[in-house]
Amino acid sequence: MEDLDAMGAHPDAAPATPAATLVVFRHDPAGGPAQILMVERSGSMSFAGGATVFPGGKVDPADTDLAEQLRIAAGIDHDIAEVAGRIAAVRETLEETGLAVGLTGTIDAVRAAAARALLQGTGRLQDVLEAFDWTLDFDALVPFARWLPRHRNMRVFDTRFYLTNLGTGAVEVTADSTENRHLFWASAAEALRLANEKAIKIIFPTRRNLERLALFNDFESARDHALATPMVTITPMIEERGGERWLVIPSGVGYPVDGELVSQAERA
Is the full-model pTM beyond 0.90? Predict the structure, then answer.
């Protein structure tokens, strides 16, 4: 039987790996609520295998190196971890989906495809920036959330969530075929419906963030909410409610639902 205490905050938790993820919005071609790009991970992945998530991944040492260079050269007014998080979010999104977002310069489908191929070869966003004469647009990424689970006997990620807007979104996206097997666009409410119908699997942080995103019909409303809501690092905890164990997050930090039964929560 799974150790339920391992799902909540634990003093013996393993050190967290810095990570970043990007919630990419686009207008719904049919005129409905804004859609979000979702990525279905390969079932062979050790973390969240088979789960549907937002594009993203761990912060690589090269991301941190580039962050240090940019802070000095461009005078960026953020700490290294924040800059590296945004770099990782842009890099992972380009690698996983082919979308060149959070970047400025001459960008079209052909150049984005070539940039993706280069990135998949070297793993360094700096190589892409230099080869295509692109620069990072930090303001295009809006900080939305930060999650830091403290699980025992589980891999732990300190994940920064960002929002960005693709606008019309009239672009093709394809899975990278290594870590992911399927990409699709859906409103946050639609993604939740698919999860409730067991058509997709979503883990606890993804569900909570989709519920929060479903409060807004467009990117602008979600962005304004994110900018007006103080950033609180979310660490899920085990709490007893009505004689049952719940996995919960702090209340009053922007989330409409603060937990679910441990027996129903998908961790990974």
Answer: no
